[in-house]
Amino acid sequence: EDIVYPLTIKVGYSTGETDPRGVALAQFKEDVEEGTDHNVLIEIHPEGELGSDGELIAGLISGDVDVTVSSAGNYALYATRLGVSALPFLFEDFESAWKFIDSDEIQAVGGDLEEYNMHILAYFDNGFRCVTTTEKVGPVLDAKDMDGLNIRTPDNQIVMETMSELGATPRSYPFAELVDALKDGTFDAQENPIPVIYNSKLYEVQKYLSVTNHSYDTMPLTIRSDLWMGISDEYKTVIEDAAQKAQDYNRSLVKKQSEDCVEKLKEEGMIVNYPDLTPFRKATAGVSKVFEDVFGEDLLNYVKEATK
Ligand code: EAX
Fold first, then answer.
1. Are 151 and 112 in contact (CB under 8 A)?
2. 96: exposed, middle or buried (C-beta count within 10 Å: 0-12, 13-18, 19+)?
3. What pTM value is reported for the model?
4. How far is 165 from 173, CA to CA, in rounded Å?
5. How far apart are the CA of 214 and the centre of ligand 1, in A?
6. 192 CA → ligand 1 middle, Å
7. CB of 71 closer than 6 A to ligand 1?
8. Mind listing the pLDDT tens digit for each residue in 88-127?
9. What is the DSSP secondary structure assignment for residue 80, as one 8-state letter?
């Protein structure tokens, strides 16, 4: 793609500007514009203005979107191996999750997106996904409380399979419309990391938070490859450096908010419980087997080794 400067790069994502991805992207914008003397401008569209997570990712292929950041499992619709990091209960903490994501093996898996016109600039964090429920259905105190739960999930096969193996009835639905869907009773539950629950005010429509941490949610920051290849080497370096800096900032924000926001959610009226996760781990031990052809033996062996 022949580029005429000043170049405007359109960035879209599904949550609000206070979400750690929104805050990190604001810094990314500043660093790229300053570092290129305003020859590369970053135009940011939050709240699903450019479409849902699925539409944003499809926009990189059609050229309607230049950059997006979304859960790895949402990209797995194209490059299925990217869903591997979302397998249930893989990591005990953020540091081990980041070590796994930043490993050569998992960075190589990210390369699968190149054939879909997507180039990964960095791996933001969304956090560890937890279950929230309405007053009507009550809290998830034990794995058996997941039985038959009418729960919303992203369009993410690994997360949906995990919910199904816990006995719930998962349905995917666009995040930007989730609050309304929870308000009108379309769903009784949803699952998202604590920072998302807080920053997107899900506490206004969900009474209970059960800290299941059932799936780690890394978020590749991607640029469409045909645009990326046309950008000068000098500006590529500026963009790469800004993306890495934004990644580190985003990760520290998500970790901190995952710790701090539980108290804030209680202050907003949520009732928080920490269920015994042993029955949840047992019930979801078969998820990786469902996708073993997709992930392949080598990658699954690497995952077992890297996460034991
Ligand atoms: O964080 O759709 C979802 O649940 C995703 O987690 C979304 O990016 C909001």
1. no
2. middle
3. 0.96
4. 19
5. 14
6. 6
7. yes
8. 999 999 999 999 999 999 999 999 999 999 999 999 999 9
9. G
